[in-house]
Amino acid sequence: MEIPEGASESGDGVTRLRAAVRDQWDQLSARERAVAQYLASAPVEQLLFAGAQELGTASGTSNATVVRALQRLGYAGLPALKRELAADFTATVAPEVRLKQRIDHVGRDVEAIWGEVFDEAAERIGHASRLTSPDALRRAVAALGTAREVFCYGVAASELAARHLALALGRIGRRARFAGATGFALADTLLALGQGDALVIFQPGRALDELNILVERARSVGATAVLVTDELADAFEDRVDAVLTAPHTPTGITAESLTGLVVADVLLLALTTLDETRAVESSHQLTALREQLLNPKRKS
User: Is the pTM of this model over 0.85?
Assistant: First the structure.
């Protein structure tokens, strides 16, 4: 198969895609070849913003054929392809250029914008549900379930999921705190982390120095560690108790923290079921305190 001149930008993701197309070409059906030809030739930004239906239309096939072709090429699905392509794209294309491309893609039709956002959100959440193994989830819940206190760490876009988890853990009767310091200020958090504690780190990509130091501190004091990430699983899976996958957005159309929040909710519900009595009692106390604050003159 020949890839036309002027095909999409080079990069590891694109290189792997084209190699897969060449290697599997003889095993593809005619309609799958049409999909493969389009995928190998289209600009990266077109693939990142397109859904399976759009790719089917562009290749003269169907969304079902697109899914089959991707699986034959060795991808779990369209989100997996986008995930690989996005790494090169975001590293080489300036944020303002990516923003303009998002705007150009969705246009001004609010109904279309509604569909784009919900489609990508569903795509990311569905991809997240398939990437984390049941064993990893069980290890994460076990680590948090026996913890004296849970430290929930997240910076920048990941701060929202970490804050959410810390707040909600407190509401089901478990000691938890948010941590989001970087640099010199992180020392106070590191000092407080001790034996019997658990650390949950939300960090989709970029192995920050703080991440390495947090993990090492947890190991040295006898605390457990759970990492919620997209790109760092291979680098940290042997250094933490569990890795849960939360795919980031390949386009920026949906919030970076979306899948991290969903993973946090999974952990919360699982921990609630481990000690229903404590969770119910804590919820009762929370409701009573809220009523006192709403009606300060009313006796409880």
Answer: no
